[in-house]
Design a protein that fits this description.
Layout lengths: L1 H6 L6 H29 L2 H6 L6 H10 L12 E5 L5 H8 L3 E6 L2 H14 L3 E5 L5 H4 L4 E6 L10 H11 E12 L1 H4 L23 E3 L17 E3 L4 H10 L2 E9 L11 E3 L2 E3 L10 E8 L6
Parallel strand pairs: 1-2, 1-4, 2-3, 4-5
Antiparallel strand pairs: 5-11, 6-7, 8-11, 9-10
Length: 300
């Protein structure tokens, strides 16, 4: 309620509104810090370290979508910045594919874990403690590729600031890539078990973030976190695209997909492509991916 009340008054009390947003982000940071031990187990870190050929499933899927936009279809030899990298398994997977990687995250516990995994796996990588808004000041760039993994955008209060940071981080001709949850999926009732798709949450942004007090994690629903409260922001697809265009990037691809890497709705079916709706895979998009370049797109 405190966020809702302040949202009604945020124009006259702009500074106070920013303080409240900072408090929401601090709650998210504490939550992600606490998730780290359970995620290290759930992500199979020991298996990743033990097998030099192992890549995260997320990066295997993203590579197939990114390859047509990369020189020679490969990230080898390119500088790559991974925004919101968490514990770094995706970042280090790009390192195994030959990229010179930097990972950035606002959770110090996450980046500390990422550095330890890199050391254990014998991989060269830099991990930076920063939020996305200050990434251009915190990182040594510019980069050939800026990459955002799935499940990241909802944690950002200002998608315009995100897009401007990406533009600053990319070298001229550089590639930006993101695959994330489709905003349409986020608007659906995720508790229904009858197979009906019912819009129960806003598709368009509201004056306040959505608050969750689940106290668990998608990677292991048996976990009970002390820092249970998190806040997420709604960003429709048009806003995401427009923010990148407004920042000066050139959109080079936009795709919508029928699968998602985790069971996001009751009754989903696991396939080789990921989880799909059991009753009609063509009913709504579950994820999207896009690429954009700084300036004119370069030839792959």
């Amino acid at each position: 309620m405190w966020l809702k009340e302040l949202s009604r008054r945020r124009k006259p009390f702009g500074y106070l509104w920013l303080v409240i947003i900072d408090e929401a982000l601090a709650a998210n940071r504490a939550n992600w810090d606490e998730r780290v031990p359970s995620h290290l187990r759930a992500y199979g870190v020991d298996a990743f370290v033990a097998d030099p050929a192992r890549l995260s499933a997320v990066v295997r899927d993203d590579l197939a979508l990114m390859a047509p936009h990369l020189p020679g279809g490969s990230p080898e030899g390119l500088s790559l910045l991974h925004l919101q990298c968490h514990v770094g398994l995706d970042t280090l997977s790009w390192a195994r594919l030959g990229a010179h990687v930097t990972g950035l995250d606002f959770s110090p516990a996450s980046t500390a874990a990422a550095r330890d995994i890199a050391r254990r796996a014998g991989l060269s990588a830099t991990f930076v403690d920063s939020d996305v808004d200050h990434a251009a000041d915190a990182c040594t760039g510019p980069f050939d590729v800026v990459y955002t993994g799935i499940g990241a955008i909802a944690w950002l209060p200002d998608i315009g600031s995100w897009a401007r940071a990406i533009e600053r981080l990319l070298r001229p001709g550089g590639l930006f890539y993101v695959r994330d949850v489709h905003p349409m999926l986020c608007a659906l009732d995720s508790e229904r078990t009858d197979g009906e798709l019912v819009v129960s949450r806003p598709y368009f942004p509201t004056t306040e973030p959505e608050r969750f007090d689940d106290g668990t994690t998608y990677a292991d629903d048996s976990v009970r976190l002390t820092n249970a409260t998190t806040f997420e922001w709604t960003h429709p697809l048009g806003e995401i695209v427009e923010s990148l265009l407004s920042a000066g990037l050139t959109l080079t691809s936009l795709r919508e997909h029928r699968s998602i890497p985790w069971c996001a709705m009751p009754g989903m079916t696991l396939t080789p492509e990921g989880f799909v709706l059991a009753q009609g895979v063509d009913r709504v998009p579950l994820t999207f991916s896009l690429t954009a370049t700084k300036g004119a797109p370069r030839r792959a």
